[in-house]
Fold this sequence. Notes:
mainly beta, Porin, 16-stranded antiparallel beta barrel, globular, disordered N terminus, signal, Porin_dom_sf
Amino acid sequence: MxxxxxxxxxxxxxxxxxxxxxxxxxxxxxxxxxxxxxxxKFSTDGWIILQAHKQNGDTKDTTGFRITSGxxxxxxxxxxxxxxVDGVTLSSRVGLYINAQSGQGNFRNAGNVGxxxxxxxxxxxxxxxxxxxxxxxxxxxxxSIYQGEAVLADASVLAGxxxxxxxxxxxxALAATFNAGYLYTNFNAGVRYNSPQSEPLTVSVGIYDPxxxxxxxxxxxxxxTTSPRVxxxxxxxxxxxxxxxxxxxxATYQRxxxxxxxxGAPCASDHVTTSGVSAGTTxxxxxxxxxxxxxxxxxxxxxxxxxxxxxxxxxRERKSRGLFTQLVYHPTPALSLRxxxxxxxxxxxxxxxxxxxxxxxxxxxxxxNQYLTTYGELANSRFSRNPVFNTRTDTNYxxxxxxxxx
Length: 406
């Protein structure tokens, strides 16, 4: 029995890492696979996530109870791989994401009423890949490079986490630890190259469909894009005996123009430039896993990159920075215990005040078998000035949930 639990947990860890990597780097893990005599392969994988979470905040807008998807909505994905031709393997993936809180229901929850985004399939992944000894090229819609490693490391990415800016009635799933510690760059159309993964030192570079650069809270924004967003990363996995260590650094750069303030007047500058760098490490040593990362950015905002509070009221790029650290301990093969801390600072400008956000999360994750995981998390999130509510907020979370993965 002990051996069976150990094997199932190893399977789950491998599947979890591979499936999150699929979202981030364009790699698919085939869970249910069929192959034709000609060598074509078809597979499907995915997960179902549902959780209940109670928020107790110091405002009514940050206090409530929801039953929703986790940080990442439920997923069903389909993969097709062609036989190799001249040493090149072509494959593709379509990933359809679904929020559990879709449909009509409680009028208090915007995610249940009148929100078509929460009621539809979300095709976050639709890409093709050409792989050979020289590496791989991924083209289509997939997760971008910048700060992807922090997302992969966060134990809440397929579990609980925090609602965006602690808004209990957000129309989406929870938002991992994006409130504090790192930024979420999202799934995006583009072309990405990954060097051969068998080498200790690897690189990735991509060009992506650019985003508007804006502040949705105060109305300023630059919406004309004349060049792509560029992202790149470098990753190093040294050979250190039983320890598994990964060091990385990545960066992003983009421009937009025709910047206007909320009144329609020209911004301080017609052109807006955004940039960011991040770096970190992940270490696996026996029963312990440790992650530490940090970022510094200009014009990227404090949660969803470029989309929420990237600019001030005059249209100037806001500076932000963050730190995220997490320790995971496996006291038994089936049980994982986690603590994480995140902090994000977005600076004041002459036109718009900034804020400091902090998050603390403790969690327990139990693999019932190789397919089913249950979890519970307790968390606290604090904003010196929450940009949604324009006031200080202090919010406690309690979450219980389950994940079926195939």
